[in-house]
Structure formats: structure tokens, C-alpha cells
Amino acid sequence: MSDFQVSVVIPTYRRPDLIRRCLQAVCAQDLPAERYEVIVADDEASVHTRLVVESCVPAPHPSLPSPGGTEPSPEIRYVPVTGVHGPAAARNQGWRVARAPIIAFTDDDCVPARDWLRRGLEHMADGVAGAQGRIRVPIRAHPTDYELDASHLAEAEFATANAFFRRDALEEVGGFDERFTAAWREDSDLFFALIERGRRVTRADDALVVHPVRPASWGVSLKQQRKSLFNALLYKKHPRLYQERVQMGPPWRYYRAVTALLMALAAAASGQRRLAIGAAASWALMTGDFAMSRLRDTSRAPSHLAEMIVTSALIPPLSVFWRLRGAVKYRVAFL
Known about the structure:
By secondary structure, the protein is of the alpha/beta class. The protein has two domains: 6-216, Spore Coat Polysaccharide Biosynthesis Protein SpsA, Chain A (Alpha-Beta Complex); 219-335, no CATH class. The protein is built from 13 helices and eight strands. It has helices at 16-27, 47-55, 87-96, 116-122, 145-151, 167-173, 186-196, 220-224, 228-237, 239-245, 252-269, 273-295, 302-329, and strands at 6-12, 36-42, 75-80, 102-105, 111-112, 128-136, 163-166, 200-210. Strands 3-2-1-4-7-6-8-5 form an eight-stranded mixed β-sheet. α9 (228-237) packs parallel to α13, α11 packs across α13 (302-329) and α12 crosses α13. The chain is elongated. Mean pLDDT is 93; it is low at 59-69.
């Protein structure tokens, strides 16, 4: 039986520089190194990432000098992910080889505070199945729409960027559902499963992880619409909790815009010019209103303005498509 008190599991995928930064912060914890281990689950099984992980050393910390000039390092293990891929599968492979009774999760693009583990463990008393730490997402005074949206991670419930679970609780619910192949809703699914089983969960707001926003390509919000597919899966598994904690109802704004667009196209195709113009004007007004709502409190840079106009026209049909595709795929009445 291991003497480790906690195992830190970090999934990664093609981010060698970020996993190095994360590992430096994890290895610099003020918890004694012999009390925890670190497991990196590499979803690419990359030789380069493995070499980065194996070469990592603790980041220097001036407040805790050691006689040898370096601090003791926790044991770090590299786990290549095989079989099913995605962050849920990577986390499962990580925690299942862990040797401690408590599992701490963070992500490769995060930087845990120096007292993160110690503070989190203080909340994992007997009877507590899971504890949600605090996530801070620093953004600029005038962020892009993407950066503002990413900052809402700080308000998420049991995001795996900063969460602690008892191993027996993970075993009870079967870990993460590996059908969530993207980084979306797999953590909510696990959280809901614990609630439905009556397991005790709590907050650990003094256990801090900083989550810097990564640079994103132009039009990134279009790619993100595919996440709606997994909203359908979460709704099928936990309809009551989904409605209470995620979304009260369908995004009618999107459905209205799509309906107006389809009416305009159908009317134009059938030669009904006045109806086509009216429907097109209605669609344009709704698209403009959507773009303005996204520009509120965000950057007014020309490139960002253009991105908001273009993507505001394309997001509603893309979102509706992925939501309905999820409803069909998972056989659930989901709008």
C-alpha cells in the first residue's frame, strides 16, 4: 500500500510547453514531496511530451531554500493513453493507475498555487466525496469574446481544472464517461452522478488554480459549437440537474434566427420577393443584436469586430445543427 496522500492527475495533448509550466508549479507545492505523486496522461502518446515530462524538475522557490540548492521532487509518472481518446479517457487512465486514496485533477494549461494541494486536502475530511477548488482566469480589461467566454470557467461547478475526489467515489460512478470525447460536460456528468448517489461534495475556495487563457485562432467560436453535441448527452443522463444547473430551456434566440433565415431562403427560391425581404431583414436584425450583445464589454479592434459580425451569423445554425445531431445520436428529446 502506498504512503501517498494524494495523486495529481494531469491530462495533456500536444502541449509540451504548457505541461512543463504546469509540472513546475505542481512540483513546487508546499506539501512534502513524499506525500504526493504526479501522473501525466498523454492523449497523444508523444515521445516529445514523454521526454519533457521525464526532464521536469521542481521550479525554484526563494522562500524555501534547501541545502542542496534544489527542492525534493515528487514522483512523476508518464502514462501514454491508448484505446479511447479524449480528456475523459485520459483522466480515467490517470486515476486508475494512481496509488493514493485522493485524486487531484488539474489541466496542462493551468498553474496551481503553491498551497493548492495542501488547501484542497484540508477539505477532504471523512464523508466528503469531492471538493471543488477555485479557478482564477485572468483576462484583459477589454478582452475578446473568446477570452470573456473562457473567463466563465471561474464560475463552473466541479471543473476538472481544479477538483479533488476520493478514489472510492470515482470507482462508484465508474469514473468519467468516455463518450464525452471533448473537454466539455464530462466534469459536470461526474459531479451530477455523485449528487444523484447522495455523495457529499463541497467547495475548497482557498485551493487556487490559475487558468491563463490560451491564444485562439480567428473564428474559434465556430469550432466550439460542436460542444452542443455533448449537452444532449448530459441532458439525457441527468435531465433534472441539467435544467436546474446548466440550462433552463433551449436557446430560442438561435432557433428564431435559423427560422428567419430558412424562411428567407425558401421565399426567395419560390419567388416570394416581399416575404423573402421581410424574413431576411428579420434575420439581419437578430444577427446584429446577437453581435452587439457579444461586443458588450469586449474589444473593439477591427479584426474582432469583423469576427463578431461573421460568427454571429454562423453560430445559430451551427449550434442548432449540433444540438439536433446530439438529440439524434443519443436518442433524447433535446432542443
